[in-house]
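Ticket #4471: structure output looks truncated?

Reporter: J.K.
Steps to reproduce: submitted the chain below (486 residues) through the standard prediction queue, then opened the result file.
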Amino acid sequence: MISLSRRLAAELRSVFRRLGGVARGSGPAVCISTGPDGTHVSTRICDVAAEYHVPGNLPEEQLWAPYLLLSDCEGKQDEPVQLERGHDGSVVAAWSDRGIPQRVQYDQVLRTAKPDLPERPPEFSENPPELLAALHDTMTTTDPDSIRYAIGCVQFRGRSGTLAATDGRQMLLVRGFRFPWADNVLVPAAKVFGHRELPQDQHVHVGRTDDAVVIAVGAWTFWLRINKEGKFPDVDRQIPKAADAVTRCRFAPADAEFLAKTLPKLPSEDAFNSPVTLDLNGAVVVRAKPPFQDAPADAKPTEVVLSQSVPSGEAMWINTNRRYLARALSLGFREVLLYAPERPVMCRDKRRTYLWAVLGPEAAIAPTGDAVRIVSAESTAADPIPKPKTTRRKTTLSETVDNPNGHAAGNGSAKSNGRGRRKRKQPADQHQVGSLIEQAEALRGSLRDTLLKTNELLKGLKQQRQQSRMLETTLANLRQLKTLNV
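Returned output as attached by the reporter:
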């Protein structure tokens, strides 16, 4: 019989699910084994394998359980889950849920002599805990759908101790680590290294076998199969020199936090590229426009003015996807370097370099005098974008009395005849009034038809303009990516 805690089952399920992005209740079989060195729980998903080790001295036993078992018995407490093998090769799990006994039998899923895990490397290099964050950041910069280049992988550079990743539109390099090999290797991206269940305050050990890069932290060990056939682009050739930057912008800490919260809420005229204009002309301004199909003809852009941040160098603006600007802020960068409106933007610090491609400068949003302005220093609410307020005014009957001078006639201002009485108007001809009403209704119907046709024409023109701009943006991106050799 093998025993696990419900809390450990929850941790195992959560980490295993992120190895290959499987949904709750589905996933690969899990091997659970005990022996003189303790308990091992392992699994493998495509090119990534993982194992959790609990030291101890236990009788030798091994069983294979379905991934569903972890979902069924997981919990927040350390209550034990007892696992035993049935006579027909099935697995029986028993535990208590709030004092209610649970017992579930799972069909046999696999029979094997040992877990399907690669061998362990002969040596490891010790790295600081920051390597986990670097692995997470680089592995979320990849594109798993790429065909031409292996940009669904992260490049481990042994000689320089650098991690490199790109998806063809953005690129991230993180330096300052130690790997026990000299050449460069590619491994598949796994979105598990940013998981909260992994210890964030322990050293990370990295090793390598002929087929895998091995990463060990705490009780966890991960094997990432090496992609020996993939080709990684020469990203270093695209990195400009910091000294060649024409314009710089350093975000004040309060402005960076404010902009990070504000960017997702700004209107977007293109859902695919989510463009914003970063305008550095004596002040730091981020400008956005509403969608073509939803905005009226006189729609105003929205400007976010970062009052505590000051640009330096030449005046310049760029048209960029807001996701990359937001990501630069989330990565902790506080300075952006600009070289030209059509060239990539770069951020860097002592250990990292982040670069992303911009959108076509011809579609940048120009400043206007009637823009909706939001100033960072004046915004204290959780939602920095104010919602327009509509003021309604009630009209009383006393305010609608006809008077030639435009003022309502009251008791003290009504014109009187010689006897002090208010002069009464003569009633209008009923037939003439009816005729005027019919003409007004006919005119209203004609105007309504004209308005409907005008709206349809405007909608068609805006859709055509949007398609033309999307085509121009796509062509500009392709030309820019061609220069990156991606």
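Triage note (M.O.): checked the attachment and the full token line is present. DSSP finds six helices and 26 strands in the chain.
Status: closed, working as intended.
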